[in-house]
């Protein structure tokens, strides 16, 4: 932490230019919007550079001042509204000299570049040549010595916009999550048509081959394979072993033998074999058709993946990166290396640009030299974890020898999207470990009543993409059913429990641990996997289901705002779920461009409501004549949705009119988002592997006995890693009355929401994202 400075004065006398370059990606507009608005908030002048580097070289009308209103209604648009172009002129020194002249004449010494590794490498070269370019311009009489002195140093900050997620150092690049949404929509549609074909013609079994983008990076293909439970995936980082053709055909026959009526194969466009020979979707289709005689269809998705509206994740990512980019530019000194702002877990980080570019090149080199394990490691921890999970689920035969271990899985609390993905992964990993997997229907109540049945490999087929809870779920807590539950555990010889659910799952886990004192049958390892739209489970920054709900709210808000496209001066008040937890309201506020988001954790009074109304009255005087207010369902017992609606209607009379919407249970429904499918799959797999090790530790004198605090844990995402935390330890971090953790990471994002809505508030600059070294971090030096 460093002394806080007045953020509203940081940019006074400075000028920032923002450009998008290379291939477009959904979410770029969110990054542009945040850069412009936060730049203006700091007192800096901000300029758009239209048509990427070409606009920088051509100058003139391509470099225009940006205003607050000029970035309104951009969040929900795909692509980039300021244009992007691949520029040959900028590759020449003559072109870069012209670009430097254009920037100097406008007093711009801070450049924010949104693009891929080629665009960012070009920016770094431009920066390193800056002094030389200015000297040439002075010599040619294009600029004066004073102008050169005032612009003596150029600061560069990059944001990675690429749907392939092919830039090392960042967990997710802008556009990747939206591309996955497009792919998964197609996969779901394809699997639906295949199921209907199977119903009509019993012998009609199909194999679908889907080719996705990723010339040099297999991230999209790999996550798609995890998210849809594909039978095989081809990625450039890890080509298949020799004689893969026989292995593939054998795998497809085995899955058919287990009762599957559909095979899905995912191919990255850059897939190749061990000798560097390309593997195309048509090649795989011909192989399967000829060797197995299966009815096979190949689909190449192409530019569909680049299109459409950005997902909630990409909007929030772009907004957070835009804020961080402006701060990095204004805090930079002549000695600061050019950096990229990036995401690691849920944390914004700054990484040296050229180190990231170097590691990205090292991946390509490793692939060319056949060092495929190195290529996977160089891609980063997130990619490596995805690959490990895929291998566990797709590459292992169930062992002949059984472990005689019975693991029961139950869903607790309200249903949410992604629960079934976690169950499927847990069941299949359990089977590969030799365990017997048991389904408990209807939560703790079902466990008490003995609603337990075995689960097989085939019985969880196709569950990944299904919403809700196939096992059935109830909110009933176990405290009053402890005796019956202990009898069921003894009756079905259950050795471990996986509890998937929200705050009730957390409290239920604690009650089972308390019951260990009286009932020895409860002395078994258990793990709680957070799954709730509210994202209020202690011990985890994210819960399964929250991302799907967030996308539902965001898309609904887009439609609500669009409904007023032809109507001037309208304000919408939208109520979201979440109980006392304001995660959904805050994050949806960021992703949909809300003017305010009322939540329990950030208390407010009538004076704050008055300020918000006055703010909207002022907003209606500009060219933006729409307002959006989000309210968390339990933010305040007295300031209800109806009260806020009536207040705004009365105070805005003659200036704007109001409409209200209560989104309700639509937030719990729908098919899971790619993030929730992937997150649920990884959580389910990791929980079973942890239980397997814990059972070995707890095996004494021919039986399992677990009564230590670390034998009952919550599996959660903390900053950058999935970690197991004892339930007993998390007790101290919990506000049981309001069913929320005492500290929540996302509250730090609320000032960003207010700044982007044009409120004059203080931004805490004391906690900076320090520059991290990726090469050292990866142990490559």
UniProtKB/TrEMBL annotation:
Substrate binds at residues 162-164, 206, 213-215, 269, 297, 303-306. Signal peptide: none annotated. It is found in: Cytoplasm. InterPro entries: 6-Pfructokinase_euk, ATP_PFK, PFK_vert-type, Phosphofructokinase_CS, Phosphofructokinase_dom, PKF_sf. One of its GO terms (molecular function) is identical protein binding. The keyword Kinase applies. Residues 1-395 are annotated as: N-terminal catalytic PFK domain 1. Keywords: Allosteric enzyme, ATP-binding, Cytoplasm, Glycolysis, Kinase, Magnesium, Metal-binding, Nucleotide-binding, Transferase. Beta-D-fructose 2,6-bisphosphate binds at residues 475, 532-536, 570, 577-579, 633, 659, 665-668, 739. ATP binds at residues 23, 86-87, 116-119. Its main location: cytoplasm. Its EC number is 2.7.1.11. It catalyses: beta-D-fructose 6-phosphate + ATP = beta-D-fructose 1,6-bisphosphate + ADP + H(+). Mg(2+) binds at residue 117. Allosterically activated by ADP, AMP, or fructose 2,6-bisphosphate, and allosterically inhibited by ATP or citrate. It holds the Pfam family PFK. PROSITE patterns: PHOSPHOFRUCTOKINASE. Belongs to the phosphofructokinase type A (PFKA) family. ATP-dependent PFK group I subfamily. Eukaryotic two domain clade "E" sub-subfamily. Homo- and heterotetramers. NCBIfam families: 6PF1K_euk (TIGR02478). This is ATP-dependent 6-phosphofructokinase. It comes from Scleropages formosus (Asian bonytongue). The gene is PFKM.
């Amino acid at each position: 932490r460093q002394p806080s400075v007045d953020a509203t004065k940081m940019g006074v006398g400075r000028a920032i230019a923002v450009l998008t370059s290379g291939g477009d990606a959904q979410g770029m507009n969110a990054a542009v919007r945040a850069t412009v608005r936060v730049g203006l908030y700091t007192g800096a002048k901000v300029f758009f550079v239209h048509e990427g580097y070409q606009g920088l070289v051509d100058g003139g009308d391509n470099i225009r001042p940006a205003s607050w209103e000029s970035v309104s209604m951009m969040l929900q648009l795909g692509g980039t509204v300021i244009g992007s172009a691949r520029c040959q002129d900028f590759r020449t020194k003559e072109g870069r000299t012209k670009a430097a002249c254009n920037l100097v004449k406008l007093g711009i010494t801070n450049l924010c570049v949104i693009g891929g590794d080629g665009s960012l490498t070009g920016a770094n070269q431009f920066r390193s040549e800056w002094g030389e370019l200015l000297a040439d311009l002075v010599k040619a009489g294009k600029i004066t010595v004073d102008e050169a002195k005032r612009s003596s140093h150029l600061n560069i900050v990059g944001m990675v916009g690429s749907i392939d997620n092919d830039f090392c150092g960042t967990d997710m690049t802008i556009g990747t999550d939206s591309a996955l949404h497009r792919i998964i929509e197609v996969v779901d549609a394809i699997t639906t048509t295949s199921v209907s074909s199977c119903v009509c013609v019993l012998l009609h079994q199909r194999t679908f081959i889907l080719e996705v983008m990723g010339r040099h990076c297999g991230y999209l293909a790999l996550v798609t394979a995890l998210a849809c439970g594909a039978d095989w995936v081809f990625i450039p980082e890890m080509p298949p072993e020799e004689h893969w053709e026989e292995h593939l055909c054998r795998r497809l026959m085995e899955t058919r033998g287990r009762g599957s009526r559909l095979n899905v194969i995912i191919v990255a466009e850059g897939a190749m074999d061990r000798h560097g020979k390309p593997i195309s979707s048509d090649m795989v289709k011909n192989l399967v058709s000829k060797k197995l005689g299966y009815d096979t269809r190949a689909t190449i998705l192409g530019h569909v993946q680049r299109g459409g509206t950005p997902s909630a994740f990409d909007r929030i990512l772009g907004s957070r990166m835009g804020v961080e980019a402006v701060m990095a530019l204004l805090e930079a000194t002549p000695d600061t290396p050019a950096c990229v702002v990036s995401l690691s877990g849920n944390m914004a980080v700054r990484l040296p640009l050229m180190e990231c570019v170097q590691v990205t090149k090292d991946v390509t080199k490793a692939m060319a030299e056949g060092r495929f394990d190195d290529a996977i490691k160089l891609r980063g921890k997130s990619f490596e974890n995805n690959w490990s999970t895929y291998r566990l689920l797709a590459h292992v035969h169930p062992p002949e020898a059984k472990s005689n271990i019975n693991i029961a899985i139950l869903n607790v609390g309200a249903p949410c999207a992604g629960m079934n993905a976690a169950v499927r992964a847990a069941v299949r990993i359990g089977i590969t470990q030799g365990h017997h997997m048991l389904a408990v229907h209807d939560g703790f109540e079902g466990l008490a009543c003995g609603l337990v049945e075995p689960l097989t490999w085939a019985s969880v087929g196709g569950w990944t993409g299904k919403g809700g809870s196939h096992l059935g779920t109830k909110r009933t807590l176990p405290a009053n059913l402890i005796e019956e539950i202990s009898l069921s555990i003894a009756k079905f010889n259950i050795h471990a429990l996986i509890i998937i659910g929200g705050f009730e799952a957390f409290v239920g886990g604690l009650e089972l641990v308390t019951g260990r004192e009286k009932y020895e049958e409860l002395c078994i390892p258990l793990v709680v996997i957070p799954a709730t739209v509210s994202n209020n489970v202690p011990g985890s920054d994210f819960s399964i289901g929250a991302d799907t709900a967030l996308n539902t709210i965001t898309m609904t808000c887009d439609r609500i705002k669009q409904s007023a496209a032809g109507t001037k001066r309208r304000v919408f008040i939208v109520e979201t779920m979440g109980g006392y937890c304001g995660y959904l309201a805050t994050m949806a506020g960021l992703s949909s461009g809300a003017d305010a988001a009322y939540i329990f954790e950030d208390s407010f009074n009538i004076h704050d409501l008055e300020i918000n109304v006055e703010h909207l009255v002022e907003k209606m005087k500009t060219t933006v004549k729409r307002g959006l207010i989000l309210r968390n369902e339990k933010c305040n017992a007295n300031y209800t949705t109806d009260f806020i609606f009536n207040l705004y209607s009365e105070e805005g009379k003659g200036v704007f009119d109001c409409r209200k919407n209560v989104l309700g249970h639509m937030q719990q429904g729908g098919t899971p988002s790619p993030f929730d499918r992937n997150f649920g799959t990884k959580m389910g797999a990791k929980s079973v592997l942890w239980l397997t090790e814990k059972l070995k530790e707890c095996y004494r004198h021919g039986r399992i006995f677990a009564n230590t605090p670390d034998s009952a844990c919550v599996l959660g995402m903390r900053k950058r890693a999935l970690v197991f935390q004892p339930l007993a330890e998390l007790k101290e971090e919990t506000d049981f009355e309001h069913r929320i953790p005492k500290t929540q990471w996302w509250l730090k994002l609320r000032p960003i929401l207010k700044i982007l809505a044009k409120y004059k508030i203080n931004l805490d600059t004391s906690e900076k994202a320090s520059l991290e070294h990726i090469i050292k971090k990866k142990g490559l030096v």
